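The protein record filed here:
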Amino acid sequence: MNSKGRILIVDDEDRFRESLKRILEKFGFDAVAVADGMAALHVLERGEVDVVLLDSNMPNLPGEDVFTIIKKHGIAVEIILLTGFPIIENALKMMRNGVFDYLAKPVSIEQLLSVIGLAVENKRIRNWDTGAVDILNNNVD
């Protein structure tokens, strides 16, 4: 079966992270789960990821800092920020800075699957657009 997309789950809450991984796999996604921001950055260095589900409140390297590093390095992923402590001003700031979506925990599986699906589609369209531009400019071998 083809994967609907590769999802990286970054959350320091073991039970939440592992449950979400199983749910996403059940719905046809290829899911990788890590407990902190540094581990997430290592996964992103090694391979193709479509969407990162990123907890905003983690020890050592908070989600907002992980997002900043991802953006600074130009890693082509969509970021969905998850928080147990939603603050409207933070959500607006992060959305303006390029986060695909900002969701408050607890989030329903239906809502999360919908947002993930849209994020995967958005990433694939951006990748297709980049490839199409290269073809039109004869930059492809």
User: Anything to note?
Assistant: The CA atoms of residues 56 and 63 lie 4 Å apart.
